[in-house]
Design brief:
heterodimer; A: mainly alpha; about 0% strand; B: about 90 residues; mainly alpha; MYOD Basic-Helix-Loop-Helix Domain, subunit B; 5 helices
Chain lengths: ~130, ~90
């Protein structure tokens, strides 16, 4: 369940020393955890979740930086329609897919994103409520 | 409609029919909030793509914003009590 996975990730962010890190660093960590939990819950069957997990695990500054021009598994699809190009950029892994696949992946990605946003909103609302009681 | 045929979409596994694309478009349209597309059944493909891009961008912004707020809340709240409150609210 994505909610429990995300809560666990949040508690790890909390334990990593709140005093030592700036809020913006923590915010970036939370955002990364959110995308990672979302992708992990979707599983490997979706191209967007695989692409997202690859991107998160390949953080800059860790080890050798892979040259961007090298070895794409497939050639990116040349775009004619600027809307299609824009969608390919927004959906993780969208650059190399066939158009039909892009539409399928986009629908699934939007669904999961909306769910993750609702989950985080619930957590913020509940945590704010807890804060206001104390 | 004629522009669709000029796109290089036939490469790969067989021809992709307009019906298949229409079907996928309507599935994507169903995911988008009604407020964005209105109540029309027939919305152009371009409109669906445009609204999908806009919706994804707004969701990304919300994720950023909520991450910031969660970061602030984590610094002020005891996480265990917040977690308990959340789990309770999710189970109800």
């Amino acid at each position: 369940m994505v909610a429990l996975r995300f809560l666990r990730a949040l508690s790890l962010v909390r334990c990593s020393g709140p005093g030592a890190r700036s809020p913006s660093y923590r915010a970036r960590g939370i955002r990364r955890a959110a995308y990672a939990c979302m992708a992990a819950s979707a599983g490997p069957r979706r191209a967007w979740s695989r692409a997202l997990l690859r991107k998160i695990r390949r953080r800059p500054g860790r080890g050798l930086r892979r040259p961007r021009a090298v070895i794409r598994r497939r050639r990116p699809v040349g775009g004619g329609d600027p809307l299609e190009v824009a969608l390919r950029r927004l959906v993780p892994g969208g650059g190399c897919m066939e158009y039909c696949r892009l539409l399928e992946e986009a629908a699934d990605y939007v669904k999961c994103l909306a769910m993750q946003v609702r989950l985080m909103q619930t957590i913020v609302d509940s945590a704010s409520h807890v804060n206001s009681i104390d | 409609m004629s522009t669709r045929r000029s796109r290089s979409r036939q490469a790969g596994a067989g021809r992709i029919t307009d019906e298949q694309i229409d079907d996928l478009m309507s599935k994507l349209q169903a995911i988008l909030p009604e407020a964005r597309l209105g109540r029309n059944d027939r919305v152009s493909a371009a409109k669906v793509l445009q609204e999908a891009c806009g919706y994804i961008r707004s969701l990304h912004r919300e994720m950023d914003d909520l991450s910031e707020r969660l970061s602030e809340l984590l610094s002020t709240t005891e996480m265990s009590s917040a977690q308990a409150a959340v789990v309770r609210s999710l189970l109800m």
